[in-house]
């Protein structure tokens, strides 16, 4: 009977340990998915692991993979690798929620089940589409006016900005490669701006285009790549930089092709 009880305790410990490492992988994936830099991801996972009395934590993360190795006080160890192929851009609200959760855990330890539940709530919480549309419209209009456009240019940029938001919400999920979706969105965006400027000659095409392009420029990704490189995460930084440059190049090509095609169609 004692042997059976010991086996049951060992089984429960193993279940708890596996639950913990899976939850830590969920946290790391959610942070990378929200645009966090690699150092922040590794540091957060390490802090949470040590808060649960893990003897040794070894975390390695890049933009498409997380490797976690945990050594426990009883001498047992666990290692898991998670590979993910598609990131959803930047979500600072989700990143802030995960950071707040990690601070709460360090101050008031939760059970692994409660931790998994809290993480799942954060991951499942989706952006409100109405707020996304409002942000895109406001940003595109503000940038167009800031760079020298008038109020009418701002309105036109806001309309195209709403189109960009709709394309990113409803089209991007169908493409595994973000470069392809960026090319399609930039082409449609450029063609829309050229069409509006042709139909309404009083509008300033350049200012409208600048305002809308600012929505698609991968500025956060490029900034994070430089930060990763400066902090010693050279591999992750190079990967992020290559991705940012590819997106920027695709954006430029899509705009150029759409303007050329529009000029041929309406000339």
What does this structure look like?
There is one protein chain. The chain is mainly alpha-helical. The chain folds into two domains: 2-124, no CATH class; 129-266, no CATH class. Helices cover 72% and strands 8% of the residues. The protein contains ten helices and three strands; from the N terminus they run H-H-E-E-E-H-H-H-H-H-H-H-H. It has helices spanning 2-33, 38-51, 92-107, 112-124, 129-146, 151-170, 178-199, 205-216, 219-230, 234-266; strands at 56-62, 65-71, 77-83. It has a three-stranded antiparallel beta sheet with strand order 1-2-3. Strand 2 and strand 3 (77-83) form a beta hairpin. The N and C termini lie far apart (89 Å). Mean pLDDT is 83; it is low at 1-8.
Question: Helix amount, in percent?
Answer: over 70%
Order of helices and strands: HHEEEHHHHHHHH
The class by helix and strand makeup works out as mainly alpha
Counting DSSP E segments of at least 2 residues, the number of strands comes to: 3
Shape label: elongated
Q: What is the CA-atom radius of gyration, in angstroms?
A: 23 Å
Beta-strand percentage?
Answer: 5-15%
Low-confidence stretches: 1-8
* Strand adjacency order, main sheet: 1-2-3
Number of domains: 2
Q: Mean pLDDT score, rounded?
A: 83
Instruction: Quickly count the helices.
Output: 10
Main β-sheet description: 3 strands, antiparallel
Roughly how many Å apart are the termini? 89 Å
Structure in a nutshell:
The termini are far apart. This protein has a three-stranded antiparallel β-sheet. With 267 residues, it is mostly helical.
